[in-house]
Queue: 4 jobs
Job 1
Amino acid sequence: MHEVVLGDVSITRIEEMHGPILPPKVFFPTIPESAWDEHRDMLVPDHLDADGEMVQVAMQTWLLRSGGATILVDTGVGNDKARPAVEVWDHLHLDFLGALAAAGVRPEGVDLVVNTHLHVDHVGWNTVLRDGEWVPTFPNATYLMPRADFEFWNPANNANIVGGVNENVFEDSVAPVHAAGQVQLWEGSHVIDAALRLEAAPGHTPGSSVLKLVSGSEHALFAGDLMHTPLQIIEVDHESCFCEDPAGARATRRALLGWASDTTALVLPAHFSGAGALEVEHRGDGFGIRRWAGFDRL
């Protein structure tokens, strides 16, 4: 199953790719090795390889149909992009648009694109290369981008981008959409419709955000990069090496996992492989996994 319906909103999982990304100690420098060993049965093979040497992740988009609108949450790495800092993402040629088509969506039919933040692996399919120019992939869509990230990742404001994972990203995946007049910047919170609301969730990046779904008695949290491995639900006070504000990331993760636990919300992170989504619960001073969702495993 690739689709879940919560209240009046349908959720479809669109995979770009999945596989190994980084060694655990590099990706999560402060998580003790003993924690990976203790929770090995939960993590292998979907979130950690059998040798315990590489974290496994997915690049995926959540396709929502809500209030008659077709909405994409995050857009992966993208094709043809120069990514010198991440060799496996450099100049890709993947059939992401084919996967969207298989779900019944053509680029022209997308109404709204939500970039939870503006990291390289969340904005790639914002644009495609056409006749040597980067153009919006979804010509009729409004792209919702957090203002704080739009300003932070603009190379004109940040000299540290060169040589990092976000090198070239603003120029090829953000600026062309803005130049086309399709970007709506927001801050604080933003109501999409009666069921969907964006909320600032800073820490991972200054403009990181989450999308909350409340429809009838159903709740969901599209968590972006609130966490990259299920182990962060248990080891909640440990962040990835890519977090700009580690203390802020920890506080945000605790607050939002608390909300998800209190409301029995389905949590849909951007990068969980396997079943992709789950419910969490309070356990002592932290959290645990209540159950995994019914999506087909990647």
Job 2
Amino acid sequence: MTTKSRERLYGTDVRIAAERAARARREADRLACDAWNKRMLGFKGPAQPSPTLGDALNAGFGYLEVRCLGCDTKQTVALNIVRRPKTMPVHELERYMRCKDCSRLRGYPYKRSALVALRETKISTTHPPSVWWPGER
């Protein structure tokens, strides 16, 4: 006489619950990132509190758009190559951002930047930079 294994009895339920929890976490991270983006684009901040790097990557936002306050250029930074812990909030990256053009022109690291928004794609001709508030161009 044999009995059914626990894997056979409960395995499917455990896997379904784990998948459902992962989907809920992804949706919660996406909502947190969307709320932060709306706050940054609508009010120009405040950047705190912000989602963590891991939350942004889990939600599908792979890039952070940054604006240089010296030359007013906008660049994207890939979040998956940032060498910081995934538990670090996005707003703490602001102090590490440097503009290459301004630094070369001034001869020292120019660190004046402003975080704009989290993005799913890089800035390109088909995906232009984010607009701070309605009417700005």
Job 3
Amino acid sequence: MGFSDYIIYLDESGSPSIEADKGDFPVFVLACVCISKEHYADVMVPRLQALKFKYFGHDQVVFHERDIRRQSGDFVVLRGDRDLRESFLVEVTELVASFDFDLAATVIDKSKLAERYPNPISPYELSLQLTMEHLALTLREHNQLGKVVHVIAESRGKSEDDQLELVFRRIADGQPPLPSNQRRLITQFDWRIRFCDKKSNSSGLQLADLIARPVGLKHLRPDQPNRSYDVIQRKVKWWVKHFP
């Protein structure tokens, strides 16, 4: 069993807690970017680094959607210069559009989930289950059956990482409540999850981070202009599940 030709980067937006963020962002979004390692190494990483050099003079900037939106941290340089800010945002959008990747994302409407189920499953566990089902289909299309598939997730702390890894392993091993046909497909891959700190400056995690919140905003405010989501929607291979 060899390594897959593809790697997956996972990030979320919103809190997985049912009670959290009821007003501002009452959904939980899990976004998984599946990208070929060749494209990642030869195209994505160099282009992202080049953009950082152009606007910041170094490559230690971590592209974080919240910091960009709030113009905080390294992105404080965008304040007070509307032309610079617009130029940067346009180039980031064009950069994402230039990458060749598959997207699997799940949006959990937490209030509706709680209304429908007296004891709802964790939004994180539910979204991971739905997303991994689609990732398995995608990897099968790429002829990756039987291979080792690495999933890279941003570390959220030892306790949270341990909980996520437990859920991940249960789904990867095909344990119930997955339907039998889904269990059969998911278990045909050797899934391995790795956690890394945001400061690792992973290009893949930054791409997933830039995608997650716009997907959630599209669900909450479908008629509001959403430049980032429009780019995602134009991708040939993308999948977004809204639940319930």
Job 4
Amino acid sequence: MNILVFNQKGGVGKTTTALNLGAGLSRTGDAPVLLVDLDPQTHLTASLGYQAEEQKWNVSDWLAGQGHHPLEIGNKLSLVPGDYMPPASRDIKPAQLENTTLVIDAPPSWNNEVEVLMQACDLVISPLEPEFLSMQGISRLLQRMQHHGIPWSKLRLLLCRYDDRLLIHREVRARLVERFGRTILRCVIRKNIRLAEAPGQGLSIFDYAPYCLGALDYQELTDSLLAEAKGRGR
């Protein structure tokens, strides 16, 4: 199962989702997980306690198929560190990894790399905040996917920083379900300060605060995606 985490808007929980979904899959799934930091901001790399500037091998090398030297993060979890100064154009022919789950943290903008990797991935998870403008962004993403021949069936919408006590959050969730149906995931990531704290310690939420709401929510997301993959037979 290969997953691209993407939203054309930044600051919506994209990197947090890539990190903790990858960690959850490595804990619960059978296959090893490779996290890929495609975003030049290299927040995924930093969230695991590494400096992109210090790495001799990074995502640009991985994309070009130049060796395979990921950073070992934990049991069945490794990282392709980001490139904070990527070339204007990069070859896209990453090594084919058998029996490995990829979780790619994409930049918050559409480009050729995003398109190619989205075509190759099984799922596209788009984290979004429960705001009405988020629906406009998703409509534009669907238009781009259609334009490039990428099936909408790959897309899964994930509400992040959700607070059920807020009327606007409940209203946005209801409208998303009405408009996008099964594309919107039933599980949500609730607002939780521990999710903001964990990257400062270079840890996933499961290692930093395994019993907090954030850990419970990302475990639920992990379990739902593994069950879906099992139903698809992959």
